[in-house]
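Reagents: none. Just compute today. Polysaccharide pyruvyl transferase.
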Amino acid sequence: MNITITNVFGYSNKGDSAIVLSMLDALNKELGDVEIAIESWHPELDQDIYKNCRVFDRLWKGRRCEKFGNFSPYPENLLESVTKLPYLINSIQSNNGPLSESIFLSSKEEELISQLQESDVIVSVGGGFLLGSIESLVHLYSLKIATLSNTPVVIYAQSIGPFDNKLVRELAASVLQNVDYITVRDNISKENLESMGVTSPKIEVTADAAFLFEPEYTSNIKDINNDINNSGFSVGITVRNWRYPNSKNPNKKRKNYRQQLSKFVDYINSEYADHIYFFNHTEQDSAEAERIIDMSSCESDITNLRSDIPPRNLKHLIGKMDLFVGTRMHSTIFSMEMGVPTISIAYLPKSIDLMQRVNLDKYVIPIEKTNKNDLQIMLDNIIRNEQEYLQTMTKKIQRLRKLARKNVEIVNKHAQS
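Predicted 3D structure written out:
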C-alpha cells in the first residue's frame, strides 16, 4: 500500500511531531506492508527523523515567520504567489483545473505530484492548520492539488476553522467539499465545517492521533529521569507565548498570563510540590517559561527543561509527574494518557473540547482568563478528589484511544477503494 501524508509542517514543535510519529506508528502497525511518503515544510530535517519515509519539499514554499511560528503564508518569491494563488482560486471556481495547468512547477514539485497520483490514498496530516486567514492558503493549495490527482483524499483528525477571512473561508469550503472523508478531533470543527456548507464528504468526530503516541525512555534523558525520581512530589507545566489574536490589547493579556502563572507557581511550591518542571515544546516555550520563573519567588525549586528533548522522551518524563498544568494541548494529552491528573489552560477551543470529552471541563480555563485563584481551586479539588478524577479520566481516555484508531480504519478503507 502506498500512502502520501501532506501538509507536514514542523518537527520542531513536539505536539506536531507527536502527531506525525503517531500516524506513522498506527499506519505501519495496523496496515502492515506500507510505503509512506511525506510532503514536508522541513524536508532536510524530516528525512532524518522519518527515516523509513520518502520526504518531499512542500508545493507552496512559505518563508519562516515568527508571527506564524515555524511557517508563514508569505511566499519565498513573487513568482510563486502570482502563479499559485490565481491557480488555486480559478481551479476552485471552475471545480476542475487539471494538474497540468498548474504552471511554473519545479522538477521537485512535479515529482511530488507524480507521487500523489501513484498513491493508494492521500492523507492530510492531523493537527490544526486550516483556520484563521491567509496562513491557510499554502495548505489549501496542497489539498487542492491532492483532490485533482484521482487519488482518495482523507483529512486525518484535524481541528478546522474558524476562518476570519471570507475569501479564505470560501476557498477552504470548496477544497474540503472535494475530499473523500473528513475526520476531526473536536466537535467544534464539525460545527465549523457544517456552517461553511461542507456537506459532500462524511464528517466524523474521532480523536487526536497522539492518543496512540508511545513514550520512550532512552539514555539521553537518564540524568533528567533520575532527578525527577529523586524530587518527591513533582508538578509539570507547559506554557506558550500566545498572540491573543482576538484581543484589542494582547500585551495586557500576555502580561496577565505571566503574572497569574507565576503566582500560581508560588502557590504550588508553597503548598504541594517539592519540585516544579517546565516542559517545552519549542524554544519559544522555553523563553516564556524563563519569564514566568523570573517573576516567581521559588526559582531554586524549579527546573526549565531543555527544548530539544525528543517527543517520545518528553511523554515519558511527563508521565513521571504527580500533577500537570498544560497550556500546550498535546502536553495535556501526554499527561492524561500517562495517568497524571491534569489542569488545562486553553489557547484555542480544541483544549476546551478535549477536557469536555473526558468529563473534566471544570479543570480547564481559557488562556485570556488565566487567574491564580481559579487555578488554585482546580488544584485543591484534584488533591482532595484524586481517585475520582483518575477514574473519570481513565475511562474516557480509553474511549479516545479507540476513536484515534478509527482514523486508521478510515484510511485503510479508502486505500482499498
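The CA atoms of residues 19 and 209 lie 5 Å apart.
Action item: order primers for follow-up constructs.
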